[in-house]
């Protein structure tokens, strides 16, 4: 069976972009693949330095995964920090790639341009992500467009290793759906926690409504483009064209319709989420990390032998 893997950072509450870009395709594809879903807490450490918030986010995102349909019986759901082989392999990849190569990473450049601290972890981030993916001989990685280059970097890390030490890693492919590659936020830019333009996935109905009502609209246009683009995640073009024709210029009504459409999808997931306890999460992550470690540990034995540290 081919392998599917993705990960999301517990750096804040998940938003609609995270869900449709990565989590939803993961859940849909997980039926056909042997699947791995990570909480990449060491990646979050590049920006989040509040232990209490990190702890809460980890528990929260695990609940989000399950509420969104990830099945702990069928998928291995685990926390990156529980599998130390990830950071170990990341180091080995860092010794294979160059500083100029890492300097070209868009995500790093964007984050630094936005004023985030250029810490060494942020800089080496793509090699930890490469380790996350390559340890499991992953075939396919569902992500949003912003992660496309990181998957290329993972392929490059695999190729560098294989050329240097012999064929050990499979080169993974990204899975990016055109329709949801870059979900726009309330201001029309990419939806992102750091742009403060998100619609929360598991917010209350009021929180979702507040975010939708704040979507920026062009007062001269007949149809509010930013509202339409988010709405197209929930309805077909033909449904939308009727609705938007019937409500020309009525932005409040269209936003109201979008709130109801989001709520119809999110309400059952929110209800499921409320039934998951912290202890359920701890048990699921413990079992998941045991399964993940068995695979990662065996791969790392091969890696250590290949690079010459096993004597
Ligand atoms: P993160 O936590 O920033 O985002 C999680 C996932 O959500 C997708 N995404 C979006 N998709 C569409 N439209 C948007 N506006 C949008 N915003 C976010 C991201 O593309 C991502 O798929 N580096 C990764 C985490 C990671 C990872 C991995 C992913 C670490 N190791 C291994 C896959 C495999 C990240 O920062 O995701």
Q: How many individual β-strands? A: 5
Would you identify the CATH H-level superfamily of the largest domain?
Answer: HUPs
Overall mean pLDDT stands at: 96
Please give the order of strands in the largest beta sheet: 1-2-3
Main beta-sheet strand count, sense and barrel state: 3 strands, parallel
Order of helices and strands: EHEHHEHHHHEHEHHHHH
CATH class of the largest domain: Alpha Beta
In CATH, the topology of the largest domain is named Rossmann fold
- CATH architecture term of the largest domain: 3-Layer(aba) Sandwich
Number of helices: 13
Structural class label: mainly alpha
Task: Provide an overview of this structure.
The protein is mainly α and 311 residues long. The protein has two domains: 3-181 and 278-307, Rossmann fold (3-Layer(aba) Sandwich), CATH 3.40.50; 203-272, no CATH class. 55% of the residues lie in helices and 7% in strands. It has 13 helices and five strands. The protein has helices spanning 16-29, 41-44, 51-67, 85-94, 99-103, 106-113, 120-134, 148-165, 205-213, 225-231, 237-246, 251-274, 278-307; strands at 3-8, 34-39, 75-79, 140-142, 173-175. The strands form two sheets. Strands 1-2-3 form a three-stranded parallel beta sheet. Strands 4-5 form a two-stranded parallel ribbon. Strand 4, helix 8 and strand 5 form a beta-alpha-beta unit. Helix 7 (120-134) packs across helix 8 (148-165). It is globular. It starts with a strand and ends with a helix. The mean pLDDT is 96. The structure holds tryptophanyl-5'AMP. Tryptophanyl-5'AMP binds next to strand 1, helix 1 and helix 7.
């Amino acid at each position: 069976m081919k392998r599917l893997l993705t990960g999301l950072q517990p750096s804040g509450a998940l938003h609609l972009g995270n869900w449709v870009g990565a989590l939803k395709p993961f859940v849909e594809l997980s039926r056909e693949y042997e699947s791995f879903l990570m909480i990449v807490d060491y990646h979050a450490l590049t920006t989040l330095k509040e232990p209490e918030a990190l702890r809460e986010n980890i528990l929260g995102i695990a609940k989000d995964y399950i509420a969104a349909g990830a099945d702990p019986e069928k998928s291995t759901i685990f926390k990156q920090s529980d599998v130390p082989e990830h950071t170990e392999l990341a180091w080995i990849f860092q010794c294979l790639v160059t500083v100029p190569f890492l300097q070209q990473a868009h995500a790093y450049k964007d984050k630094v341009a936005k004023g985030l601290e250029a810490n060494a972890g942020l800089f080496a981030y793509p090699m930890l992500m490469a380790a996350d993916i390559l340890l499991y001989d992953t075939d396919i990685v569902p992500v949003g467009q912003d992660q496309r280059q990181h998957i290329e970097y993972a392929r490059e890390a695999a190729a560098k290793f294989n050329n240097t030490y012999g064929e050990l890693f499979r080169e993974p492919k990204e899975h990016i759906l055109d329709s949801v590659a870059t979900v726009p936020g309330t201001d029309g830019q990419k939806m992102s926690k750091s742009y403060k333009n998100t619609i929360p996935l598991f917010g209350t109905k009021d929180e979702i409504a507040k975010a939708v009502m704040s979507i920026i609209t062009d007062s001269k246009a007949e149809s509010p483009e930013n509202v339409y683009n988010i709405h197209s995640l929930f309805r077909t073009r033909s449904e939308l064209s009727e609705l938007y024709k019937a409500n020309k210029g009525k932005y409040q009504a269209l936003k109201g319709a979008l709130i109801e459409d989001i709520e119809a999808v999110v309400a059952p997931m929110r209800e499921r989420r409320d039934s998951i306890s912290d202890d359920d999460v701890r048990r699921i992550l413990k079992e998941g990390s045991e399964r993940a470690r068995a695979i990662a540990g065996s791969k790392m034995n091969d890696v250590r032998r290949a690079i010459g540290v096993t004597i």
